Amino acid sequence: MTTATTSPVLQAQALGPQWPTLDPFLFCAHHDDSYPASDGKMGVQAVEFEGREMGSDFSRKDGWSMYHGDHVPGFPGHPHRGFETVTLVRKGLIDHSDSLGAAARFGRGDVQWVTAGEGIVHSEMFPLLNSDQPNPLELFQIWLNLPAASKMVAPHFTMFWDERIPRLVHTDAQAKRTTVTVIAGALAGADAPLAPPPESWASQDAADVAIWTLHMEPGATWTLPAARGQGTRRMLYFFAGESLQIGNVLADRHAALELVAGQDWQLVNTGSTAVECLLLQGRPLNEPVVKYGPFVMNTQEEIMQALQDYRRTQFGGWPWAEQDPVHGSEPRRFARYPGQAEDEVPGE
Known about the structure:
Jelly Rolls; Pirin family protein; 1 helix; mainly beta; single chain; seven-stranded antiparallel β-sheet; 24 strands; 348 residues; 4% helix
């Protein structure tokens, strides 16, 4: 990576299994799994399990992991408190089930946003629907912190369907396109922004939270606008493509790049393949963070209370017959919200 005297990049870090984040973000994982054809029952064929630590397989053997699944890959029922999960699915499908009674099958561009608040238990399973061809899955899971005043709010579940997510499609002077998908925050030229969950830090205008993905054709040029908020911090994850020019900095390897947020910066795809980036930004909460597994609070005492509450109440219990429920063999995407009998089907 080469820089000039005045750099838009404050720091650069390599991308590993978990990507570095900035307050108010806590965690960012990029799962990219090349699952094989299924066994006809939405799971992995037993012959594929050799050499894996089943129940806790993060091996990426043969290009994929079982995670905590023992037949269907994924994450069976587990609790959260004190933050939010935002899940962006680029390929494949995810089956969600939770202690609120909500259920969903989503993917192929959809985004799920869960406010854990005072406590929720959910499962995220990766059903393999194709028995005659591979089942690729790619997603981002992002953890967004909740301010201390909102850590014990009621949990909330919502879906943003791909067809309804705002996008900006910019064509430059060379007829090269940049597409920006806007999950959170506002962007001039895109449709009206989505409404984050009501208790989210992202719902506060002054928080200046943005979650965007960028796709730049080879040779494309686009100007990343300055953040609106005073004190906003911004991380650009360059994760696909050959090289990306940011102002006077050439990024020639994939990296997490903290950018100067208060200025516009011209981005140029200087490679021969498409460039893809994830952008996370927001005004920091500047509050103490104490983590213990799936709980994120402000003090150690609050973590101890979370453990006690979960042991006592199971955060409302688990209304499903299995810890790893999947929702049938049909590829239809849907969401069933707590207390509602009807499914919401995109486009209907």
